[in-house]
Amino acid sequence: MQFYRKISRNFIGSLTNGSLRFLTSAPGENPREVQNMAQLEDDLFGREVPQNWEEKTPKRWRHDRQHRQPKPAQQTPKNEIRIDKKTNLAFRELPHHDPIIRDTMMLLRSGKKQKKESFLLVEGRRLIEEALRANVKMHKLFFSRFDDLEELQETLKEIPKAELYRIKYRDLSLWSQLTTSPGLLGIFERPQNIVSRASNILPISVICDNIREPNNLGSVIRICAALPCQEVLVMKGCTDPFDSKSLRGGAGAQFQISVRYPINWEDVPEILPQENSVFVSESKLLDVTAQPPIDVAEFSLPNPGEEQHFTVVIGGETHGVSQEAYKLMTLYRNSACLHIPLSHCVESLNTASALAVILFELRRKFQDQRKLMNIIEN
Fold first, then answer.
1. CA distance 109 to 101
2. How far from chain centre, in Å, is Cα 266?
3. Contacts of 92 (CB under 8 A, 6+ apart)
4. How many CA atoms lie within 13 A of 15 on its CB side?
5. Which distant-in-sequence residues (6+ apart) come within 8 Å of 205 by Cβ?
6. How far apart are CA 3 and CA 83, in angstroms?
7. How many structural domains is the chain composed of?
8. How much is the pTM?
9. Among 9, 93, 212, 328, which residue's beta carbon has the most beta carbons within 10 A?
10. What is the percentage of the chain residues whose pLDDT exceeds 70?
11. What's the CATH number where 370 sits?
12. What does the mean pLDDT of the chain come to?
């Protein structure tokens, strides 16, 4: 109030005598004089001046701030179920930053929580279709455009318990693990026993050892599904085969072939059949032959018999295979360590490329054997 009074007194000297008729004396404790001074300042500056000024000390200000009443919590509006006219699918439309979106995505952002809760994050129409065709249980599906939902119309009608949520595209982009969100994000239950839908499955098992790059592991599983192999064993220490990067690297092949993970080496002999041959793929052949000693010679894959089973062990590019893989070779007859000859300017092949060379050579042997047996029978 003192500040306004000082400003007012500078202007009072320029006013006419008629304007000062109510200020016969200096403003004192008289409330009328204070009211007249406030009215005069309001006329001069065009603003309302407080008539009762209460100066707050820092202590008083902190007290008022701590004891102020909290703002009422904003209640989330009830999300009503709607029906899309084109697809005839029921969905809920969620506002921006809805708690359902936040809680679900925060749960899936942590890899440990995903494994603990047995949840799986799948993005994109193709991967979601592969998961649904494999009868993997879907809990929630987030989408932004009805056109994307229309492409999954026939598949989603067979899953009545799935919850569909339409959210803003910026929310999908915020929580997506891709640079550009595909517009579809599904929450699935981690599959346990995938039954391959392929025919003429070859009696081949592939053991993945020390593969810590998700894209490489996804490519390995994709090659095994394309052959097709019987199963894939992912040893403990490898990356998660159902990680989002592994799923994209495998193009959804994890939903087309049996994938067991994580497996300890002590349990491998119980999983593999007794009539089995183990082939270990190793690029550092000279280091391997040092310990334990292994005879190095030119080797041709044997002609497969009816009761014969083959197991191929493939390692990562950096660490290779572990010593347990060579110990596994000693448990089965006709086992060998495979080395693919390369030019001197190339040190090694990609993990998936090396496996493709070995597996398709095995398949060629199977096909030649079957042709020979058909000729003999006829």
1. 12
2. 31
3. 79, 80, 81, 82, 163, 164, 165, 166
4. 16
5. 229, 230, 231, 232, 233, 271, 272, 309, 310, 311, 312
6. 64
7. 3
8. 0.73
9. 328
10. 73
11. 3.40.1280.10
12. 79
Please name which of 256, 257, 245, 259 lies closest in space to residue 122, comparing C-alpha atoms: 245
Q: Are 224 and 335 in the same domain?
A: yes
Same domain, 266 and 165: no
The answer to whether 104 and 98 are in contact (CB under 8 A) is no
Give yes or no for residue 40 having a pLDDT over 70: no
Residues 353-371: tens digit of each pLDDT? 999 999 998 899 888 888 8
* Most confident by average pLDDT, 182-186, 217-221, 314-318: 217-221
Helices (H), the chain: 2-12, 31-45, 58-66, 99-109, 111-117, 125-133, 146-151, 153-156, 169-175, 214-226, 244-250, 268-271, 285-290, 323-329, 351-377
Q: Give the integer Cα–Cα distance in Å for 14 and 35.
A: 21
Q: For residue 175, what are the contacts with CB-CB under 8 A and spacing of at least 6?
A: 101, 105, 109, 185
Q: Which residue from 108, 101, 135 is spatially nearest to 122, judged by alpha carbons?
A: 108
Residues with Cβ within 8 Å of residue 181, at least 6 apart in sequence: 123, 169, 172, 173
Q: What is the pLDDT of residue 124?
A: 92
CB 213 within 8 A of CB 248: no
CA distance 67 to 306: 83
Residue 325 sits in the same domain as residue 246: yes
Residue 124 near residue 179 (C-beta atoms within 8 A): no
